[in-house]
Write a structure and sequence with these properties.
Its EC number is 1.20.4.4. With 146 residues, this protein is α/β, with parallel strands linked by helices. The chain has one domain: 3-Layer(aba) Sandwich (Rossmann fold). Helices cover 40% and strands 14% of the residues. It starts with a strand and ends with a helix.
Length: 146
């Protein structure tokens, strides 16, 4: 049996969804297929998102920005939106049983020096790590209880 797919959506699929994908993939391991996509993909993963994740030992440098339509023919057990626009644009996916909306600030809109922008990426990364870490713990506990 294939592991259940958890799809994390945001608008551009350049920052928040990749931060969440990397964090959740590391936390859940191979028992789940964690992916991310966007309703209007930016066509790149933000370099400061990659840098912020490197700082906590997670490599997302090979990630690519994807459109959520790539997943319309796949069984997606859980959809998690991390911004309001994606929540509104999100379709139902085949096999979808769960949907969560946990919005976070978009660090791509940060201004100032690179260090000031990176501080925003770190803050959002840490917020995502807290929320998705708790979610992962609950999913793993439920898996063990079976």
């Amino acid at each position: 049996m294939n592991p259940p797919t958890i799809l994390i959506l945001c608008t551009g699929n350049s920052c928040r969804s990749h931060l969440a994908e990397g964090i959740l993939r590391k936390a859940l391991g191979s028992d789940f297929n964690v992916r991310s996509a966007g309703s209007k993909p930016a066509e790149y993963v933000h370099p400061l998102a990659i840098k912020a994740m490197e700082e906590i030992g997670i490599d997302i440098s090979s990630h690519r920005s994807k459109h959520m339509d790539e997943f319309l023919e796949q069984d997606v057990e859980t959809v998690i939106t991390v911004c309001g626009n994606a929540d509104q644009a999100c379709p139902m996916f085949p096999g979808q049983m769960n949907r969560h909306h946990w919005p976070f600030d978009d660090p791509a809109h940060a201004t100032g020096t690179e260090e000031e922008q990176l501080a925003v990426f770190r803050r959002v990364r840490n917020e995502i790590q807290q929320v998705f870490g708790a979610y992962a713990a609950g999913r793993l506990d439920a898996l063990k209880a079976r």
